[in-house]
Amino acid sequence: CIARSPLMYGGDLSMIRPFELQLLQNRSVLSVNQNSSNNRQLFRNNEQVAWIADVPGTNDKYLALFNLGENGKLFEINLKQVGFNGKCRITDLWTGDSLGEFESSVRPEVLPHGARLFRISTNLSTE
What we know:
Number of strands: 10
Structural class: mainly beta
Shape: globular
Order of helices and strands: HHEEEEEEEEEE
Distance between the termini: 22 Å
Oligomer: single chain
Helix content: 10-25%
């Protein structure tokens, strides 16, 4: 989604499980694919890859993290380096859960061969 590539599903839609359908219908994740801008790789350090994109009309950013390795990894994201100079709220777009408020950095874990997708927002109100 963060690369704004066409989304494809390679399974039999008549046999799709509810969990898979829920993933494909996640409006927050689809918005990254359909509406984000200035999408680019933030870094690639061995088995850790991060991409970032702008949320149009806001100061918010989308952040995608990819673990290419065989073990879980903690990613260190310096929020000032990605444009945030004060408190911000981070939301997991797959689950809708708030990770909380952060000011200088965040250290999310990504499972082996896993990916995580977040929205970093300067809007600190409860969503």
